[in-house]
């Protein structure tokens, strides 16, 4: 693997899940692979899980890591080309090129601006980073995708279904939030799930919150949340802002919160969320704290998702 931007960089989704589960059983088995290797973790935006799970994944492989919070730790970075840099001190081109000289793998997080749909959806910033880096790049969440989260999510579903032994119904449910949020988790989850034949996938959201069709292709879209929940085996809750009215919150939909009553319509479904989650906004406490909540398992599996990807790239370097 030469880079990890999306599920399209993975040859076989089943195989990579299997590899992650093997690594999970024996996390230190490949400690020699990371000897004398460094992974640079670059954050244009905040993170708890991604940052620490990638550090732990690298440690398990015997790699050294460094972490850089852009703007906080660095000079003010200029993202645009051809500008007279009056208020910025270093251009993205030099910043990424130089950082890539100080590591063997560069992992980067860049959120969308949620203003310019084309800029975000063409992944302009991440494409520049891929271009400027002299080493393989890993997507730790870009404008439209969060593939390390999605890999962790499918690993988690594999664990709870004895590796997709029989067909199961997975529902991605939009849930309310006060702020306009990125689409990356919903897009990426849909993209990965669509590669698994045993999953019957439904997306439920209010009208005008439909995700881009290139990601939702193959999913059933249901606008009545309770109807979608019927017989579900997994409920994945997430807020995202509108794609149609780009980056906006459209209408009042506080009643889309995930409640115990709604979960009772399901087939004793497991509750999933990528975290961080706003309690009693997205989901009620009693669901998040209930015995069917598997959010911590998802968070734990972030280590093995990252470790599997880092290992695949390290194998290509050696
Ligand atoms: N789920 C996730 O990516 O969490 P962080 O934003 O804390 O990294």
Automatic annotation (TrEMBL):
Record key words, sorted: Transferase
BP GO terms, sorted: citrulline biosynthetic process; L-arginine biosynthetic process via ornithine
Aspartate/ornithine carbamoyltransferase carbamoyl-P binding domain ranges (all copies): 2-159
InterPro entries reported in the protein's UniProt record: ArgF'-like, Asp/Orn_carbamoyltranf_P-bd, Asp/Orn_carbamoylTrfase, Asp/Orn_carbamoylTrfase_sf, Asp_carbamoyltransf_Asp/Orn-bd
Residues in Aspartate/ornithine carbamoyltransferase Asp/Orn-binding domain copies: 184-311
Pfam families: OTCace, OTCace_N
Chain segments annotated as coiled-coil in the UniProt record: none
GO MF, one annotated term: amino acid binding
PANTHER family for this protein: ORNITHINE CARBAMOYLTRANSFERASE, MITOCHONDRIAL, ORNITHINE TRANSCARBAMYLASE, MITOCHONDRIAL
Homology family: Belongs to the aspartate/ornithine carbamoyltransferase superfamily.
HAMAP family, alphabetized: SOTCase (MF_02235)
Name of the protein this chain belongs to: N-acetylornithine carbamoyltransferase
Organism name: Blattabacterium sp.
């Amino acid at each position: 693997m030469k880079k990890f931007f999306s599920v399209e960089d993975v040859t076989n989704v089943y195989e990579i899940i299997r590899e992650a589960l093997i690594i999970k059983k024996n996390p230190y088995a490949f400690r020699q692979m990371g000897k004398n290797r460094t992974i640079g973790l670059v954050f244009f935006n905040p993170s708890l899980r991604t940052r620490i799970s990638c550090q732990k994944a690298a440690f398990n492989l015997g790699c050294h890591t460094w972490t850089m919070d852009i703007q906080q730790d660095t000079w003010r970075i200029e993202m645009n080309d051809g500008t007279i840099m009056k208020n910025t001190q270093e251009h993205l081109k030099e910043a990424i090129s130089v950082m890539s000289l100080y590591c063997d793998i560069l992992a980067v997080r860049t959120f969308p601006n949620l203003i310019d749909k084309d800029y975000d959806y063409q992944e302009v910033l991440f494409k520049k980073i891929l271009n400027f880096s002299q080493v393989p790049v890993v997507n730790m969440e870009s404008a439209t995708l969060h593939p390390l989260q999605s890999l962790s999510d499918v690993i988690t579903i594999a664990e709870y279904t004895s590796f997709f032994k029989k067909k199961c119904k997975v529902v991605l449910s939009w849930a309310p939030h006060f702020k306009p949020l990125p689409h990356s988790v919903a897009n990426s989850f849909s993209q990965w799930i669509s590669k698994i034949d045993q999953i019957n996938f439904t997306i439920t959201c209010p009208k005008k919150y439909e995700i881009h069709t290139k990601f939702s292709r193959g999913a059933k879209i249901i606008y009545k949340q309770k109807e979608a929940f019927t017989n579900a085996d997994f409920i994945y809750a997430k807020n995202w802002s509108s794609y149609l009215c780009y980056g906006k919150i459209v209408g009042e939909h506080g009643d889309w919160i995930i409640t115990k009553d709604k979960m009772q319509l399901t087939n004793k479904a497991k509750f999933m969320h990528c975290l961080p989650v706003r309690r009693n906004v997205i989901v009620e406490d009693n669901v998040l704290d209930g015995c069917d909540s598997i959010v911590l398992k998802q968070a734990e599996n972030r280590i093995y998702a990252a470790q599997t990807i880092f290992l695949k790239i390290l194998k290509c370097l050696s």
